[in-house]
Amino acid sequence: MIPTSGSLSRGKMSQLGMTLEMIQFEHTVFALPFALMGAVLAQEGVPGGRTLLWIVLAMVSARSAAMTFNRLADQAYDARNPRTSSRPLVTRRLSRSFAWGFLVCNGALFILSAAMLNRLAFILSFPVLALILGYSYAKRFTWGAHFLLGASLGCAPLGAWIAVRGDFNSPPLLLGLAVLCWTAGFDVIYACQDIDFDRREGLHSIPRRWGVARALFFARLLHVFMLLALVAVGRILSLGSLYYAGVGVTGLLLAYEHSLVRADDLSRVNRAFFTVNGCISMLLFAMTLADRLRAG
Questions:
Q1: Domains of the chain: which residue ranges?
Q2: Which one is predicted more confidently, 83 or 218?
Q3: Confidence band, pLDDT 50/70/90 cuts, at residue 147
């Protein structure tokens, strides 16, 4: 039977749906608010609609490309890990050719979005794309992979600042550092689940190198550095009480996140990883926006 155009379209939509599920598209909420936060701070208010549109497209396409590449690069590992063995690429419900096409389209959209913003954003889009894709191989060589993931997400507020102003200085660098520490911290927590698998496969992580208890302590330390960097951003930019209230509540949420996990009980890692961190990014953006609007 010759497939009809309708059945082909339904097949492609099914593949697209599985791809979005595979990369957990809804978790774009982790980094997107920080990109918007960087844009608001650079503009000292709300940037124009055109700029916001291209920032959002750049952010979403960059994350989609990075996550798809990660799933392609790790397919063999995912097949051997009980936690990830049901992913669509592993079970062959999703074809590698479709995933590669999705990756190429999103990589191209990211570069186009950067080009539509300004020249510096366009130039930097190439090394940024190399960073966010290259992270997928880091765990094979170094326990510092957590920091490369953090740097990948830390590019979000820095890139948004550049998109608005066409240059950068200490505030967006500090904000990027805050995101780096935040991301590396919760990635260390998440990696504690795979410590036995990492040992078997020869993969590297902070939990594998120093054990779960020390890894959780290190994650707490990273989140303290995040708060200090956020305070430094506020002081340099003379931000107001609403911003600092957001930083304070973020500290409470981080404390709650760490209360959910212990070296002998990792059963609530997903709750800490997904729910709490999604709240943190959205809260900080909302309070930063409110602070800038009040000041304006």
A1: 28-295
A2: 218
A3: very high
Kindly report, residue by residue over 168-214, the tens digit of the pLDDT. Answer: 889 999 999 999 999 999 999 989 988 998 999 999 999 999 999 99
Task: Kindly state which CATH superfamily the domain 28-295 is placed in.
Answer: UbiA prenyltransferase (1.10.357.140)
Cβ(58)–Cβ(117) below 8 Å: yes
pTM of the entire predicted model:
0.90
Question: What span, in angstroms and rounded, lies between the C-alpha atoms of 97 and 158?
Answer: 33
